[in-house]
Amino acid sequence: MWLNLRALEERLETRFVGRRVIYLTSTSSTQDVARAEAEADAPDGTAVIAEEQTKGRGRFGRSWVSPSGANLYFTLIMRPEARRARSLGMVAPLAVAEAVEQVTGLSPRIKWPNDVIVEGRKLAGVLIETEVQGQSLKYALVGPGVNVNFDIEDTSEIVGIATSLKRELGRETSREELLAALLNRFETLYEGGASVDIVGQWRSRLETLGQQVKVTFRDQVEEGVAEDVDAQGNLILSRSDGSRVVVEAGEVTLRG
Ligand code: BTN
Predict the structure, then answer these.
(1) Nearest atom in ligand 1 to 114's CA
(2) 74 CA distance to ligand 1 middle (Å)
(3) Smallest CA separation from ligand 1 atom 14, residue
(4) pLDDT attached to residue 256
(5) Residue 244 CA to ligand 1 centre (angstroms)
(6) 129, 189, 200, 212: which one has the fewest Cβ atoms less than 10 Å from its Cβ?
């Protein structure tokens, strides 16, 4: 069944996030539509939502499996002030994890920096792309993909590493309820300012801390124990020789 936009709106408690919706039954990638809309001056908080993506993409140029009518694929066009921009990488996965917990009772964890996992398998990912003009940020495209009512067994290439709410719960979840909860949480965290401890909440869900990991970024590889994160969300690794390195971005794999 396709998304019921009225049911979504009825549950929305936001001031601006998701108040303008561009809804598509099929598109290449919501990131691409959002970029064109952002260039055409779409308002802050606009949500581009698709039922299906034919070229859904993930981090590191990977593809994101996006079958029709089952999951959540959307991109938020955000126009943050500089001091808020960095928090988006923590706010987005945290909003996904908290919304899933609120709606289903599951307690998702986060794999640094922004994969949402349940029982070690990936439930959701977030792609964040930014457009910079001179020294300032023009806009950020915050794109979560959440596996909701997806029969993951049908997709052999991800069956061992990914999961869906349907697989975890053995039943379907209302996408409208989950999306509304997610947008509500997202705005609350984003606007929370000093009253919300984003780093603390995000850190407390991080599965990665204390593990022996390998972090790959561009062609660089760093190995060590994931000791902590700093206030910007960077990962602090402690190498075997006792030295420390701060990693700003990258992909974590467990060191085998
Ligand atoms: C990742 O974990 O690598 C990030 C996956 C992000 C997928 C979402 S689905 C909605 C938005 N549109 C895309 O093409 N990608 C993101």
Answers:
(1) 2
(2) 8
(3) 56
(4) 56
(5) 31
(6) 200
CA-CA distance, 101 to 169, in Å (whole number)?
A: 12
pLDDT of residue 192: 87
pLDDT tens digits, 190-229: 998 678 899 999 999 999 999 999 999 888 899 999 999 9
pTM value? 0.96
Q: Whose CA is nearest to atom 10 of ligand 1?
A: 73
For the record, the structure tokens of 26 come out as 């099929």
* C-alpha of residue 241 to centroid of ligand 1, in Å: 37
CB-CB contact of 37 with 48 (8 Å): yes
How far apart CA 139 and CA 142 sit, in angstroms, is 10
122 CA to centre of ligand 1 in angstroms: 12
Return the amino acid letter for 7: A
Q: How far apart are alpha carbons 49 and 68 in whole angstroms?
A: 12
Which residues lie with the beta carbon below 6 Å from any ligand 1 atom?
A: 29-31, 53, 56-59, 62, 64, 73-75, 115, 125-127, 143-145
Strand order of the β-sheet with 220-229 is: 244-247, 235-238, 220-229, 212-217, 251-254
In angstroms, the CA 115 to CA 109 distance is 8
Tokens 């698709």 belong to 50
